[in-house]
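Re: weekly structure request thread

Next one in the queue (30 aa):
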Amino acid sequence: MIEPATLLTYIAVVLGFVFIPGPATLLTVA
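Done, posted below.
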């Protein structure tokens, strides 16, 4: 099963890469 928190995090990362690749990459790495 996929936990809601994990799902929300995944969606947030995907949207981040779509709209703001730069900042999203920094947040993902950090």
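Residues 1-30 form one domain. The chain has one domain: 1-30.
Next request, please.
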